[in-house]
Write a structure and sequence with these properties.
- By secondary structure, this protein is mainly alpha-helical.
- Helix content is 78%, strand content 0%.
Length: 137
């Protein structure tokens, strides 16, 4: 029993560590997009925090969706043919836009606009899709 708890705790710690490393690149991209869209500096630390929370939720829910959907089979393009997987992606994008809108302030202590948050999520998703497609081939 103790070994199982320690194994799960260790896995959770490593997941957070790897997610914090993986959130750096989306945070830099999101930060530069928000600076460009808002035409004023935004706080990088809060952009990183929003990306980290978004990535952890996406990893947790996305991993669950993949486990339920594929049952150990390899992942292929047919995964996007399922309507509820596409719905999950839409909800994930809405969560990302909400987190960016609520957590990322500009340096003048105002929130970024919801349209800027949505555009940031859209650009991040396009970059992610391009990278995944390049790796997959």
């Amino acid at each position: 029993m103790t070994q199982t708890i320690l194994t799960l705790l260790s896995a959770a710690i490593w997941l957070v560590l790897y997610a914090s490393v993986g959130a750096v690149v989306p945070a830099v991209i999101g930060w530069s997009v928000l600076r460009w869209l808002e035409r004023t500096p935004v706080v990088f630390n809060r952009t990183y925090l929003a990306m980290l929370i978004w990535l952890l939720v996406a990893l947790g829910l996305g991993g669950t969706v993949l486990l339920i959907t594929r049952h150990g089979q390899p992942i292929d393009a047919s995964l996007l043919e399922l309507a509820w997987v596409r719905g999950w992606l839409v909800l994930d994008m809405l969560l990302g836009a909400f987190l960016i809108w609520r957590l990322v302030p500009r340096v003048d202590a105002r929130r970024v606009k919801p349209t800027s948050a949505c555009m940031t999520v859209a650009i991040l998703m396009v970059v992610t899709i391009v990278v995944v497609m390049a790796i997959h081939r």
